[in-house]
Amino acid sequence: MRFRAACVSNALCEYCIQSTVHCQPKTIYFYLLDNSFKLVFVASQEALLAINNPQAERLKVTMARPTIIQSAPLREQIYDAIRLELRTGEIGAGGRLLEVELAKKYGVSRTPVREALFQLARDGLIISGERGFMLPTDTSKSLADRLEAHLLIDPRVARHAASEGTADELKTLFKALEKGQQSHQSNRFNSFVEANYQFRITWRKMCRNEPLTRCATMLEDQFLAARNDFYKDPTNRALALFHDEKLLVALEARDGDAAEKATREYMTALIEKFVDPRQKEMSKTPSTADAVTT
Question: Does 251 map to a domain?
Fold first, then answer.
């Protein structure tokens, strides 16, 4: 029996996303059924009981940080734990990831930590430096490159999602969008980040073209840390919600053209806001040769 250590503190409540319950999960409850763990993040046992499954064997685990479970492949668990810390902003741009410190933190040897770090680097989430691995700092070029890739891939993924997504997936999108809107209005940053992540990942997984979905998901993962800084600005959160709502309307209508258009418009808006002004500013800056000539 195995499960991955995606079950960590500050994760999006999978139960809440299906109900009106809103929790701050300090304690995490699991239930065991059919020889496999079903992950349920709730704040209280009462919420767990609302699942109304008398056959479930309940396990209560208190977690202050990602906990590594020896029965599962350690490198996968450590990969998931670090990936979550990138998503929640616990590791900031330029932050270093050292084998010795991570091994001590998770209570494991350096070998699975090294393997996890190499995999994260291969997936483009971190980079290798002289003193180990680190989270890359965004540059104008890297931001422009990622947005260009999103502009090429995401509209096609949205078209597939419009025709291939299920009613349950649409329901998840509605609840994630609602949670994001409420979090934005009440200025709950972490809650907004998690709800928005759930929205983005869900609609991409609605695309049943696996190679296309894999590319879109990997590209999305490479934007994890940058989004934390991006969403600290309320105007950026409002921009994301505005375009997410347009996309959801198109997906619900099963309108592939509109879904593709909504996604393209959002990427274009981001390029116009963040990339074009930087390029114009750079074009105004005289080069060294010009300065010497002058």
Answer: yes
E strands, the chain, are: 27-33, 36-40, 57-62, 96-97, 127-129, 132-134
* CA distances, 179 to each of 11, 148, 153, 187, 252 (Å): 14, 29, 26, 12, 18
Q: Which of 51-60, 165-174, 282-291 has the lowest mean pLDDT?
A: 51-60
Cross-strand bridge partners of residue 40? 29
Query: CB of 113 within 8 A of CB of 223?
Result: no
Taking the complete model, does pTM exceed 0.70, yes or no?
A: no
The CATH number assigned to the domain holding 155 equals: 1.20.120.530
Distance CA(168)–CA(182), nearest Å, equals 21
Q: Is 5 or 149 the better-scoring residue by pLDDT?
A: 149
- Rounded Cα distance between 87 and 38, Å, is 22
Nearest Cα residue to 118 out of 136, 99, 137: 99
Residues 224/86, Cβ–Cβ less than 8 Å? yes
